[in-house]
Amino acid sequence: MARPRSDAKRQAILDASVELFADRGIAHAPTSAISSAARVAEGTLFTYFKTKDELLNELYREMRKEIDQEMADFPFTGDVHARLRFVWDRFLDMAEKHPKRLKVQQHLRSSGRLLKDAEAPNMVIKELLRASKEGAELGGLGGVSPEYLVLMFRAQAEATAEFIAAHREMKAKSREIGFKLVWRALVGQ
Amino acid sequence: MARPRSDAKRQAILDASVELFADRGIAHAPTSAISSAARVAEGTLFTYFKTKDELLNELYREMRKEIDQEMADFPFTGDVHARLRFVWDRFLDMAEKHPKRLKVQQHLRSSGRLLKDAEAPNMVIKELLRASKEGAELGGLGGVSPEYLVLMFRAQAEATAEFIAAHREMKAKSREIGFKLVWRALVGQ
Amino acid sequence: MARPRSDAKRQAILDASVELFADRGIAHAPTSAISSAARVAEGTLFTYFKTKDELLNELYREMRKEIDQEMADFPFTGDVHARLRFVWDRFLDMAEKHPKRLKVQQHLRSSGRLLKDAEAPNMVIKELLRASKEGAELGGLGGVSPEYLVLMFRAQAEATAEFIAAHREMKAKSREIGFKLVWRALVGQ
Amino acid sequence: MARPRSDAKRQAILDASVELFADRGIAHAPTSAISSAARVAEGTLFTYFKTKDELLNELYREMRKEIDQEMADFPFTGDVHARLRFVWDRFLDMAEKHPKRLKVQQHLRSSGRLLKDAEAPNMVIKELLRASKEGAELGGLGGVSPEYLVLMFRAQAEATAEFIAAHREMKAKSREIGFKLVWRALVGQ
DNA sequence: CATGAATGAGGTTTCATTCAT
DNA sequence: TATGAATGAAACCTCATTCAT
Predict the structure, then answer these.
(1) How close D7 comes to chain C (CA, Å)?
(2) How far is A53 from C80, CA to CA, in rounded Å?
């Protein structure tokens, strides 16, 4: 019966947050700047997010949700190579489509302000664990901690995204080379 | 740049900064907290560093300088494997000896507050560029951008340090495996 | 002053106000809390009361109106003792029935936000002035300002109500003793 | 070795608080108004009082301390009448000298923001308890709760102060009459 | 009329930096 | 030079009030 809460406004706030957090860092992006970038009154931000911290967490959750959606047609039954490559490609797709999000995710993760539930491992992580393990066995790395392999995979993917962001012209080649490196590392040859 | 006299005080401030930046993040470590942790008056901090930003930059330079010193006996004439392994080992040595510095370096790098000169490539980077290139040629990756390979090397090393920090008991093994992965990635087999 | 329709809603808002003003004080009872306690939308409050200040004044008037109603069968023709005792008893009855109202009235009076008309002397005050004067003459206090005597009477009654609120078990006795003190003060003996 | 904390500044803040709290009420006296009235920067207030609540409590303690000082030469060995009269006179002296403090004390007490220790009963209260009890026995009120009598005494004194504030010309007379009422109430005759 | 989202002024507090001692 | 009080510009958040639905 009253004016309904607007998804567009909520989204505008989240988008403005990404923009500002990426450019200035979380602590140097005041809520006032966010609301003004989102073309919304200062107080309005707080009807959508009770506190700045809630905004941070919600933003992180939202980004992960989108990643999960991107991964929706994950080839659960494919072979290791196909599965890893799928994640690799989708990850780089996202990084190219939303160049600032990666940085924001890193900022958020290192901010110490995320609630545990926001960081809970999701499907992608679980699949990466499985695939890394299988891959490692192929490569004679049977006893290696899968957590470590996933860390390595993410580090590699992020490094690649970072490089691509700085060298757009080597987009396609870097994506190939990057995966080749990962695959070689894991499986050898 | 006539320095104020007590080097001990200056060092205390830098040490306190590392501690606090690692624990709370740069933006949540007020200069007042730093000075009090360094057992120095609030104003004193500003006789050693004109602004907080100057402190950040100086801290970053200082840490890089120490890394360079650690690398002093770099085996310039060794083979690729030896040279990469040397950097790998020293890097992990430092990470183990000063567990908080790595995090602080990441914070600083992503803070957007470092001056260009503080990030200028140093000897290690240059050597890594050279070694990566040679390694890549061995591995049939002749045309790949050395910058990218260095990025990958650092990502890998940081991931390994992070894993070791969380799993102290796998220290030695992770160091070996980690390097094996890098080497395989680069050279194949 | 065409009133919006639901008297029940209006009353709910007033009741919620008493509750919250007593518990938290006027300034710490936001209109949003009042409306939600009254099970009414935030905006609705403002169709019944144009501003928070109007709510305050209206609430005060309403409470005084009820006191007047309670005093409806005031024994205008009784003797001084009977008249004073009547007011005394009704006042304490009200205080017991609505323990929070007294506090709210004090809050409101000391808030500096009541309009003059809301504080205009009413029947009770007028009768108290008359009775105090008569009583004082009996007690040889002929020239004393009746306003002062009324102030004293109210102070005494409020102190008694406050004491009773904290010591329910001494209800009846305190009421008697209290009046005895007032009567003695006024008339001596 | 640095600029010492200035008692004058601290006092200016407390004085400004009394002024503003009395005139507008606690909640309507922003710390910014207090600091500006005290001719001090906004931040300075917080070097003397960590929070507004601490300021409130400190102000209350300070006022009670001064009352205690005023009561320093309390005639512990005098008779009941002398002791009650002493408190009565000192109380009205203070009220006349600092007309706004009384109101501020009431505001503070009803604010719900005082810590328990700030309200702990002090010497005056203890002596009033003793004297009230003795007086009441003289007046045949043996079993009456001394707490109640003290409440009554304070109510009476505050009513008198309030009346005097509004009618300066009746200062001396009101003081006498007021005490006569109290004494009569307590002792009869 | 009822609803509750939208607004923006204003409140308390923090903090980098300056400056009197 | 060292100290820490002084400063005032933000920062985050609240809340009375308005207004679209």
Answers:
(1) 31
(2) 67
